[in-house]
Structure formats: C-alpha cells, structure tokens
Write a structure and sequence with these properties.
alpha+beta; seven-stranded mixed beta sheet; two-stranded antiparallel ribbon; 3 helices; 39% strand
Length: 152
Amino acid sequence: MKRSAGLLLFRRTGDGLEVLLGHMGGPFFARRDAGAWTVIKGEYEPGEPAWEAARREFREELGLPPPDGEALDLGEVRQTNGKIVTAWAVEADLDPATIAPGTFRMEWPPRSGRLQEFPELDRVAWFGPDRARAVIVTAQAAFLDRLAEHSP
C-alpha cells in the first residue's frame, strides 16, 4: 500500500483562511481543475517518519525549504486509489511565483517510446475554503475540515 505525507500551508487574510494547494502536473491533469489540486505531498518508504517525508517532499515538490512553525497534525485519509495520505497544517505565507517544481519522466504519448519530463506540480495557488473544496482531491477535503476545526 502506497503512503504519502505532506504539508498544507495556510494563512489568514482579511477574507479569512486560505490554503496553498498544488495542481498535479503531467498530461493526465493538464485540462482538469476539480480533483486535480492536492496538498503538497509525496510518497515515502516504510521506515521513514511521515513528518520527515512531508518536509522532504515539500522541498522536492516546490524547490523551497519547508516553513518552520507549529505543525497541526491533520491525520490520515485514504484516497480512492487506496493511497494513504498523512498531512500537517503549518501557518506560513508563500509567494507561488517563487516555486521551482520538481519533475518526473514518463512515456508520452503512450506507447510512443518517447520519454518526456513534466513538473510534479505545474502551478500552486492560494484558495479560500469553498474554492479549495471544489478543486482538491475528494478524500483530501477532510484535511480542510480538520484545519477549520482547529483554526480560530
């Protein structure tokens, strides 16, 4: 069973709480919005602590150091593909224009024999709770609920 760990950055604005989500890169999600945005996360191997994996993946996915600050444990969710995702919320402000996303390689188009490189996340953006709920991977919406329960 695959496991991922990640950080859900949040900030307080005049309009309320916002969360930072990443749009999954690659050809499968290029034209999708709903269900194509995710917590900044990545897979890790058994034996690696989830918290350390979350911080490592943040750096790999965005090319930036993970923010310091108090981490709120948001627990786990199981996605429809069976992957278990563990997340922590950290209050921080980040300019999406500063990211330098990591990349992955895959054969594209399928059965073409051509390997192409794609960004892990092709963009990141701040969302208010309603908009975030409309675009985030369905199972990960539970993280938004848990964050709302703990935020004043």
